[in-house]
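anyone seen this seq b4? input:
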Amino acid sequence: MGVVLAAVLGVSLVGCSSTGGKRAEERAAQAAAEGRAAVDTPRWTFAMVTHSGDGDTFWDIVQRGAEQAAVKDNIKFLYSHNDEAQQQAQLVQAAIDQKVDGLIVTLAKPDAMKDVVTKAVKAGIPVITVNSGSAESKRFGALTHIGQDESIAGEAVGEELNARGRKKALCILHEQGNVGHEQRCAGTKKTFDGQLQNLYVEGTNMPDVQASIEAKLQADKDIDAVVTLGAPFADAAVKAKKTAGSKAEIDTFDLNAKVATALTDKTLGFAVDQQPYLQGYEAVDLLWLYRYNGNVLGGGRPVLTGPQIITAKDAAELAQYTKRGTR
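predicted toks r here
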């Protein structure tokens, strides 16, 4: 079983030859490709409950990563989501009632999730938080948090805007009450030398998103950068820029195939990638490692998957991965 564990971790155990380690990795990759487990551990059930709304491509990538790790690790994987915090908490409760062997949850609105996550931990269910809520994760009893530090990611955006000579930026928040979104814009404001304004929009209504951005760009021609907090909203901002006759650069958090294409043709300036596939994949893998071997990663701190600033020169290389839905 030691060789299998080495294959899952992607490294060779001390004392194993490099050839043996490579062959183990190849066997694990082949097993996953064939839709069969690469391990012989019990068929545990893991549930992931996120704050995703319908049709959000970001969460499709997270889910895909989790599902592929689940195949490899012989895990029965259950996925559910709701962008309303109380409904998300109810879905977590449903997972507890099913007596799942592991739980992965997002904490976009931590106050609404605290009691039910704490309840899962008290019930003996190991919990890993992903994407949002890194500050609350440990306090709620989770094993670790996987994602990017949203404040650090925002600071990286502010620095990139400075490097591009931008002077007045608009930060588009599409989900009110999402602490991660607030942290992104606050981080940008902290390092940006110019002026930054927040614009709150109704993310579930894309025509409204476009109209709100368009109205702001028409009213203030000095805005030379628009930062959206999710890939689907970048497209709405591009359309708003065109109809408003604005020259503002459109930049965005998150990456998908459409964003990669827009970066290549310079429709977008840059994107901030937090590697959602990795968030889903590692969450399942780390729960498996905990159940199998008592392993915990992070040493009490979040396991960071970003931020990485992606520009036109990077987009072409990543396009093959975005097209298959893993970046």
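The two ends are 31 Å apart (CA to CA). Residues 1-21 have pLDDT under 50 and may be disordered. kinda curious what u guys think
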